[in-house]
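Data availability excerpt. The first of two example chains:
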Amino acid sequence: MESGAGKHWTEEEVKALLSVWSEKNIRKQLHGTLRNKGIFIYIAKRLQELGVSRDWKQCRAKYKNLKYEYRTVKYAHNSGDVTKTMKFFHDLDAILRYEPVTQLAAEENGRCSATETQLNTSPTTDSTQ
């Protein structure tokens, strides 16, 4: 079972996936995108350059599993249960904690489009606009 969906990811493979996932342009494309096959094809190609041979389906499955596990641990921590942990929690927290909030904005043609705003603003930012 060399390249099947059941092949376990090594720690190095997960770290490579996280390094690609942490790039700002990748995070922006993944956030809120439902039809993301093209993004995962790109991620698989980037992983190939890093020496990780995974197809786009494996990358998407690992992405979804890591995100689900992260949210489960995060929810447990927010509920007071600090015993629940995962290996790459801090890496995922750095990636997922700054996901932009999507808001709908009306365009001039009457349709709505998603615009992104950052939740976290620096304390030195001047709020007068």
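And the second chain:
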Amino acid sequence: DNSSEFITKYRTLRRQVRECSGEADHHEGMSSDDELTPTEVTKFQKSRDNVLEDSRKVFEDVHADFCDIRKILLKFQEWKEKFPDSYCEAYISFCLPKLLNPLIRVQLINWNPLEQNFMELEEMPWFRAIKEFSDARNKSESK
């Protein structure tokens, strides 16, 4: 590919110029020519917005009781309290990660730990709901 060959030659030339001029504080990979162009940034932002818009529609036709992690876990907690033998025989603790996975993944689509003001995982509502469920499960098991 001619463009990648050109970029490689350009970077080599710039490195040689820096070495000749005595610029020793340059760090490889930190050059401004590695940044995205405004067109690429706009294209990325538009693509990102489309993905986020589509992700909001994923569960729009699902009843609220079945797309809210807290409500789902409350139903499982009730099942465990009312019918503990049935709950254990169904191996629910092994099924919950697979059941909750799509719900959590949709909520993590917009999460970016590299942004300045990102939300910690432990602060997210789905994480707190799972933690509360685990704490309630541990309390009932200790009884």
